[in-house]
Structures are given as C-alpha cells and as structure tokens.
Amino acid sequence: MEFNNDLPIYQQIMNMIKYDIVSGKIPSGQKLLSTRDLAIKLKVNPNTIQRVYKELETEAVCQSKRGLGTFVTEDDEVILMMKETLVDDMVKTFIEGMTKLNYSRENIIDKINCQFEKGDQQDVNIN
User: Fold this and answer.
1) Can you list the residues of the chain whose pLDDT is less than 50?
2) Is residue 112 part of a domain?
3) Which of 4, 29, 73, 110 sits most deeply, having the most CB atoms within 10 A of its CB?
4) One domain for residues 81 and 70
C-alpha cells in the first residue's frame, strides 16, 4: 500500500479496512489479521496497527476478544452507517473538487449523467 503524505498513515489504514468491510471484502464477524501480521503486510510499525484497531473498536467497527483476536462487528446497522458516511465523504470531496474547477451544480450533474451513458455504451457495470 502506498501512503498519502496528506493524511496520517493510521487513518489511511482505517479507511482501507472500512472500505473492505462495507464492500464485503471483509465480511461481518470475520477475524482481522493480527496486529503483527498486518504491520508486516503493510510495512508499518505494529503500534500503528494497534492504534488502528483501537480506533476501529472505539467506533464499534470491530471488537477484540481477549486471546482470540480482533473481529469485524456483526451489527449490520453499524456497517450500513459506516457505508453511508463513506459515501457522503466521497460525494462531498467530489463536489468540492468540481466546484474548485468552476463547475456549476448543473454541469456536475451533466458530467455524471455523461459518465453513466458512456458506461452504458461500453457495457460497464456502474453500481
């Protein structure tokens, strides 16, 4: 994983895990990699992963079970709320970027519709 210098590494890792959960790549109830194993995989300090897991637990995204590891929540409501928050953040970032390029609301909507049409013509699945 390549990290962005504009955001703390632990937050980037948290976001990666959240995306994997809401997309279903990591299913609810699944055990996450150990702190050590994830740190090795991502080439970061284990303390960084420990902070990630602590923050995710504070947000009720996961829970640690003493002696067993850290597990993704099985609460579908928590996962749905997390997904909505991620989507809202993505849309907000997109709109802010387009606004900086002097696109009006109508121009933005036209661009989105154009991309959907291009996707339909190319048989691309846009969820």
Assistant:
1) 124, 126-127
2) yes
3) 73
4) no
